Amino acid sequence: MQYQGNDCLSQVLIEHTNSSSRRSDSSPEAIFDLQKRQTCPNDIHYNKWTTYYYSGTSSTGTTACGTHYNTEYMTAAISTELEKDIGGIWNACSRQIIVIDHDTGNTIQLAIEDSNATGDLGKYALDITPTAYEALGGSLSGNDPGQRMITWYLIDGVQVCF
């Protein structure tokens, strides 16, 4: 499914709520809670791509935020282009985001802990851990293309919107 504009978030949330494969966080109350926790209403990033990656930014496995990269954590890396635009990775470290998969409607919460080059996928593309990728509905093997269409936004106590 492809969504455009402001309809994306509400449509994905409605489909996620009505999904036959409900998770414990898909109740209407939980969805409403996600919406009211959004702190940057002008910065919802619709129709963006996410991929997954297996190592931290440095060869020691340290992320750009100085934490240890672990494939089992629920973390994300923003693009180096976005990192530059917001004045450095420290303006993004540990910020919480909601990511909604367009195909499955699965909704996850991640912490930004790294930055990576996202190539042609764009400034608001995300790299996420394999665990987070699977939580969205992706597969690490088989016919999965290795990228998924998402919508994402910042939540909880954001000082700088992006």
Plain-language structure description:
By secondary structure, the chain is an alpha/beta fold. The protein has a single domain, classed as Barwin-like endoglucanases (Beta Barrel). Helices cover 22% and strands 25% of the residues. The protein has four helices and six strands. Strands 1-5-2-4-3-6 form a six-stranded mixed beta barrel. The chain starts with 6 loop residues before the first helix and ends in a 7-residue tail after the last strand. The N terminus is likely disordered.
Write the layout of secondary structure elements.
Elements: H1 7-18, H2 28-37, E1 45-52, E2 75-79, H3 80-85, E3 96-101, E4 107-116, E5 126-128, H4 130-136, E6 147-155
Parallel strand pairs: 1-5, 2-4
Antiparallel strand pairs: 1-6, 2-5, 3-4, 3-6
Keywords:
22% helix; Barwin-like endoglucanases; 25% strand; disordered N terminus; 4 helices; 162 residues; 6-stranded mixed β-barrel; globular; alpha/beta
DSSP strand (E) fraction? 25-35%
Shape: globular
Question: Unreliable runs, pLDDT <50, ≥5 residues?
Answer: 1-28
Q: What is the CA-CA span between the terminal residues?
A: 25 Å
Tally the helices: 4
Determine the CATH topology.
Answer: Barwin-like endoglucanases
Describe the sheet with the most strands.
6 strands, mixed, barrel
Average pLDDT level = 79
Summarize the amount of helix as a percent range.
Answer: 10-25%
**How is the quaternary structure best described?**
single chain
